[in-house]
Automatic annotation (TrEMBL):
<keyword id="KW-0813">Transport</keyword>
<comment type="similarity">
    <text>Belongs to the outer membrane factor (OMF) (TC 1.B.17) family.</text>
</comment>
<keyword id="KW-0998">Cell outer membrane</keyword>
<dbReference type="InterPro" id="IPR003423">
    <property type="entry name" value="OMP_efflux"/>
</dbReference>
<keyword id="KW-0732">Signal</keyword>
<dbReference type="Pfam" id="PF02321">
    <property type="entry name" value="OEP"/>
</dbReference>
<keyword id="KW-0472">Membrane</keyword>
<dbReference type="InterPro" id="IPR051906">
    <property type="entry name" value="TolC-like"/>
</dbReference>
<keyword id="KW-1134">Transmembrane beta strand</keyword>
<keyword id="KW-0812">Transmembrane</keyword>
<protein>
    <submittedName>
        <fullName>TolC family protein</fullName>
    </submittedName>
</protein>
<feature type="signal peptide">
    <location>
        <begin position="1"/>
        <end position="22"/>
    </location>
</feature>
Length: 436
């Protein structure tokens, strides 16, 4: 009988392999690659990071001069009357007057209290902040892809377990029918076996629905057609070598949330430098070349034109602004203090999350070993029960109990692997160390 069950399991396995061969085999590495290329939130984060990088230019902070070309052309038609001091007057209707001015002006701030230098450094920090946000988004989405992928693997295991129990239930119905035919069992035993078979088929149908919905969700994370069909690998490999101290050290260096808080403090410090720059004078150089021309139908001058180069500088210094400078500096210092508090708070939250997740991880590793043993025991118990049921030495209730125990043991073992994998993914995500 053991050989028979083994043969049935082998046939089911070969059937699953043959069915999967007609589908795309999606590995976890392929899934992560597709997500990095297609996921909408990752694309947006990449663009935001590029925007921050694009903004880091010397021109954006005022290091370079600005040149402006301008042209002004005014025309008017008027009815004019002029009265001179000697009493004579001149009247002209529809008198035309026009003026044309054009030229180029140049302005350059050569000193602003070192504000432009602080602003340039701040833009660099904002670029780093954009990179940290991109990393956070990538880690989060890759974590979601991993979770969804191994959820599919787990549900695939559950499908296999339910397929196995249906085969056993069908065998039980046949045995009950044979026993009823030869008068060794009642009709009630046949009906009970049929009811249990129908129950197993309902559970399998529900599990297939859940499995298909999980595929749709993974396709959503991969930003592709939700109807794309595929198969996943059957193996869940859990990294059981993680060490809490190592994870905490990595998190201090790589966790994007903590990294963002550190960058925010640096940005606040540079903001204080910009505020203090207002204590110093601002010096601007100006120059330009202009041409102007005007024509008038009435007046002492009918035409006038000029052209030439101009240059100069202006300097300004804030002497008193109602103590706003002092207030702004105080606010900037408080923002730096808040940034430091945020770093300490994020560090504590991170250590708490790592410690909690690591304890869950250790528990799940122990559960894997325990559930693996339970599955082996349940399998042995089912084999013995099936032999006894075949010769009629146990009740159908005992057989059904052994059958459900075996199925539940397989499901729990699969769940233990899945939960342990989720714990591993969560720890690596917190440490900023998911491999992709």
């Amino acid at each position: 009988m053991k050989t028979k069950i083994t043969l049935i399991s082998l046939v089911l396995f070969l059937f699953c392999v043959a069915k999967s061969s007609a589908q795309e085999i999606l590995t976890i590495e392929d899934a992560m690659k597709i997500a990095l290329e297609n996921n909408f939130e990752i694309k947006i984060a990449k663009n935001n990071s590029t925007i921050s990088e694009t903004n880091v230019t010397v021109g954006n902070v005022g290091f370079l001069p600005t040149a402006t070309a301008n042209i002004v052309d005014n025309n008017n038609v008027t009815n004019s009357t002029q009265v001179r001091q000697d009493g004579t007057s001149t009247t002209l209707n529809n008198a035309k007057n026009n003026s044309l001015t054009y030229g180029v002006s140049l302005g350059w701030t050569v000193f602003d209290g070192m504000r432009m230098f602080a602003r340039y450094d701040q833009l660099k920090e904002l670029q780093k902040l954009g990179d940290a946000e991109l990393k956070r988004t990538v880690l989060m989405k890759i974590g979601q892809v991993n979770s969804a992928y191994y959820d599919l693997v787990q549900q695939q295991h559950q499908l296999s377990a339910l397929d196995t129990t249906i085969v056993i239930s069908k065998q039980r119905v046949q045995l009950a029918q044979n026993r009823f035919t030869i008068g060794k069992a009642s009709k009630l035993e046949v009906l009970n076996a049929q009811v249990d078979l129908n129950t197993d088929q309902v559970a399998l149908l529900r599990q297939k629905e859940s499995y298909k919905n999980a595929k749709i969700l993974l396709n959503q994370y991969l930003a592709r057609d939700p109807q794309i069909d595929f198969a996943v690998t059957d193996l869940v490999t859990v990294d059981n070598k993680l060490v809490l101290i190592d994870l905490m050290d990595l998190a201090k260096k790589q966790n994007p949330a903590l990294e963002s808080q550190i960058i925010n403090k640096r940005i606040a410090e540079l903001q204080l430098k910009q505020v203090k720059a207002s204590r110093y004078p601002t010096i601007n150089l100006t120059s330009g070349y202009n041409f102007s021309e005007s024509q008038s139908s009435l007046g002492f001058t009918s035409e006038n034109s000029s052209k030439g180069f101009n240059y100069g500088f202006n300097a300004s210094l804030n002497l008193f602004d109602g103590l706003n400078q002092h207030r702004n500096e105080k606010v900037a210092k408080l923002q730096i203090e808040n940034s430091q508090i945020a770093i300490e708070q994020q560090s504590m939250i991170l250590n708490t999350q790592l410690s909690t997740a690591f304890q869950t991880y250790l528990t799940n590793l122990e559960l894997i070993d325990l559930e693996e043993d339970n599955q082996a025991i349940a399998k042995q118990n089912l084999d013995i029960t099936l032999d006894k049921f075949r010769i009629g030495t146990i009740t159908t209730l005992d057989f059904r109990t052994a059958q459900l125990n075996y199925v539940n043991a397989k499901v729990r073992y699969s769940n233990a692997q899945y939960e342990a994998k989720l714990s591993e993914i969560a720890l690596k995500e917190l440490a900023g160390n998911i491999n992709f």
